[in-house]
Amino acid sequence: LNYRNTSFITSAPDIRHLPQDAGVEIAFAGRSNAGKSSALNRLTDQKGLARTSKTPGRTQLINMFEVVQGCNLIDLPGYGFAQVPLEMKLKWQKSLGEYLQRRECLQGLVVLMDIRHPMKDLDQQMINWALESRLPVLVLLTKADKLKSGARKAQVLKIRQMTKDLEGDVQVEAFSSLKGIGVDQVRRKLDEWYAP
Ligand code: GTP
Ligand code: MG
């Protein structure tokens, strides 16, 4: 697919307000500040498509984008943001779980984590929820430009090792929105999920 033609469709305050459960959907999830919005912008070659910020918790709405008719991308709000009251965190985690388990048109989950701080509890929870629903998972170790090549490779191998015994389809790649690392792998995976 040509990801450069991606356009914004709508924002929803929560999962219940998303457009109807139709077409093929791929969601980007990850902790606040992991680089989800930056990754979407890099993938689509559009700097201002998804709003990015130095302040964690920037994306509080669920944003939906259309690559081509029937092929949608979802930018989920980040989880694990310390400044959010516990009650809101728990509520949001529950609705993320529901989305992963109930959204029929969801075909795959991209879980983004800072390559320097990967696989926190909630990251593992996201992966488990997706795999329980038989969804394939692409783990992107973001901000890979922050590590030298040797350390980067070691980190990728470590996370591959951590996920290799999971029951399901999990691929792990290094990614950098800044340097363009891993962009081709993401496009290839998404193409596969959109056209099985
Ligand atoms: P929330 O919407 O708050 O959940 O955050 P997000 O996951 O969408 O992160 P966002 O894309 O807004 O990026 C957060 C910060 O990380 C910004 O300051 C980005 O410039 C920075 N960042 C994102 N990707 C990269 C990258 O590949 N390399 C480097 N060095 N910085 C990055
Ligand atoms: Mg964001």
Descriptive overview:
The protein has 196 residues and is α/β, with parallel strands linked by helices. The protein has one domain (3-194): Rossmann fold, CATH 3.40.50. The protein has 5 helices and 7 strands; from the N terminus they run E-E-H-E-E-H-E-H-E-H-E-H. The chain has helices spanning 36-44, 86-102, 121-132, 149-163, 183-194, and strands at residues 7-12, 24-30, 62-68, 71-75, 106-114, 137-142, 170-174. Helix 2 (86-102) runs parallel beside helix 3. The model has no long low-confidence stretch (mean pLDDT 93). Magnesium ion binds at residues 36-37, 58-59, 75.
Provide tags for this entry.
alpha/beta; about 25% strand; binds guanosine-5'-triphosphate; Probable GTP-binding protein EngB; P-loop_NTPase; Rossmann fold; about 200 residues; GTP-bd_ribosome_bio_YsxC; 7 strands; seven-stranded mixed beta sheet; nucleotide-binding; binds magnesium ion; metal-binding
Question: TL;DR of this structure?
Answer:
Helix content is 33%, strand content 23%. The chain is an alpha/beta fold. Strands 1-3-4-2-5-6-7 form a seven-stranded mixed sheet, with helices on both faces.
CATH class: Alpha Beta
Bound molecules: guanosine-5'-triphosphate, magnesium ion
Query: Kindly, what is the distance between the CA atoms of the first and last residues, rounded to a whole number of angstroms?
Result: 13 Å
Query: How many distinct folded domains?
Result: 1
